[in-house]
Amino acid sequence: MSEEVHHAEDDFEGGTDADSDGAQKGSDKSVDGKRNTGSEEKDEARELPSQAAEVHQRLRMDGQKELARGSMALLLSAVAAGISMSFSMVARGIMHAKLPDSDVGFLVECLGYTIGFIAVILARQQLFTENTVTAVLPVMSQPTRKNFGSLGRLWSVVLFGNLAGAAISAVTFLYMPMFDDATHKAFITLGEHMMENSPYEMFAKAILAGWLIATLVWLIPAAGEAKVWIIIIMTYVMAIGGFTHIVVGASEAVYLLLVGNINWHELLFQFGLPTLAGNVIGGTFIFALISHAQIRGDKDISIKDQR
């Protein structure tokens, strides 16, 4: 009986060895299949917790791999992600310049916002708001000082790399002859629209953005071939809602800084810090905590059933 309880705990907590987990789970399923023949009601009762736990376990193991990566590898991937995320600003800016100033034009141009997220997520580059979910799950499962230190290192390196990549993109877009005057004016318009928010509005909207990205990360393992559509739908909602994102917004804010429309104080205290705090709270302290609490509750139910 104690072995069965131990296996139930493994299904929810797991370890760092994905292959070992897979083999153990396969063995458990084989034994359970023989023991539970004819007990369909019990299987149905346990189906939902096991599905939720499977997603949780997959994301947690991805987070463990990220926590174990070297700082230089994380930094290079994060810089690449920051540059890729600037494609959202580029695509939306080009559409804004070409489309009429109307409600329909706004809805169409918001599709451009999704481009950066598609590039980053499919390329598996290091995006800060994505790591607020995957990297924090193993820390919640084993909240040791070492794990918290690894999480702090990963967040710091990835955030710095993302912002550096966004800043590099903004400088490149402004000083190299890539776009016409209409597109440059569109970049400024997009940035000024974002900066119309007060610091508190930035913070509140960033909470929703963090929640949406966390939800996106949670949905992707089960999305299959619909992965791209899930990314488009979730990030499109962010665009039309004007929900602020620290990396996408950084490209727009740095662009405004370079042309002299805002100063460093506005960049940091009106946009940067409130948006960062909101993204972290929405993606980590709300979504990840609730999701982890759900799995912990399922684990307790599973252990009681086996006893």
Automatic annotation (TrEMBL):
Regions crossing the membrane: 67-92, 104-123, 154-176, 202-221, 228-248, 268-290
Biased composition, class Basic and acidic residues, residue ranges: 26-47
Biased composition (Acidic residues): 10-20
Record protein name field: Formate/nitrite transporter FocA, FNT family
Statement: the UniProt record of this protein carries the keyword Transmembrane helix: yes
This protein's GO CC annotations: plasma membrane
GO function terms (MF aspect): formate transmembrane transporter activity
Cellular compartment(s): Membrane
Keyword Cytoplasm: no
Segments for region (Disordered): 1-53
Organism from which the protein derives: Vreelandella arcis
Topology with respect to the bilayer: Multi-pass membrane protein
Keywords: Membrane, Transmembrane, Transmembrane helix
Pfam families xrefs: Form_Nir_trans
